[in-house]
Amino acid sequence: xxxxxxxxxxxxxxxxxxxxxxxxxxxxxxxxxxxxxxxxxxxxxxxxxxxxxxxxxxxxxxxxxxxxxxxxxxxxxxxxxxxxxxxxxxxxxxxxxxxxxxxxxxxxxxxxxxxxxxxxxxxxxxxxxxxxxxxxxxxxxxxxxxxxxxxxxxxxxxxxxxxxxxxxxxxxxxxxxxxxxxxxxxxxxxxxxxxxxxxxxxxxxxxxxxxxxxxxxxxxxxxxxxxxxxxxxxxxxxxxxxxxxxxxxxxxxxxxxxxxxxxxxxxxxxxxxxxxxxxxxxxxxxxxxxxxxxxxxxxxxxxxxxxxxxxxxxxxxxxxxxx
Length: 323
Ligand code: SF4
What we know:
The chain is α/β, with parallel strands linked by helices.
């Protein structure tokens, strides 16, 4: 049995706060979600999926006191570290625990295999601030996509939903992945829930330029419609808004989803290596594409018109209210 640490794996230097168990040793909590979840044993997961190296880790925490744009929530919940979607503009990279991991964002993912145990512990935490209770607002996720490709095999987000169902928090899910439709049976059982779909543009060529590893736009919109048809409340996040080709048609299609919340935001400016903001590369592409804040405001007004009365297009932190 060989013990490996994250910092001995390619692309993992600097992630010393995360400790791997010995090879092949699965913690008992990994298959202990309430309804006999389909969680996969960690050794069954691939070591690589798409562009990303996959590792299973014990995380220090899973429910984090919310702050910043999510401050109206009690907790944020990130089942994974890193994100296999690796969007060009992603500001979440700046929250990776080392500059090495920031620089290689999109090429590594950690599966927090002790997540279920941590959520169970939070239900009996002594401090009110750390305790997960019914109707607490939980945002899943802020610095990863809970339905990124590895979820198809790990089933970790599904197991987390099973555990959260016991508590019934006010759950907001943020994703751009159609994998979320797999869990409609669970999502429908939450008393207060909203699934926010991120759709950044109407153009496949723009998507391929800024977020080539993400699902196609039509696939996302179809998945959002499927959830809505199944009775799961949805939101639409045009955030960050990338160049839009046909704002009228796009707005009409978004309107037809009958989402309970629409939110948008211009790409955050680059703020340097150690602060959240868009990457220099994303900003460079925006300039090449002639995508300016004035253009954004013009498209935003067209979308407001197309969404029609009674539907607001909120901006930035005004959106993302708890479910
Ligand atoms: S899906 Fe979200 S968290 Fe993942 S890389 Fe893209 S913007 Fe970042």
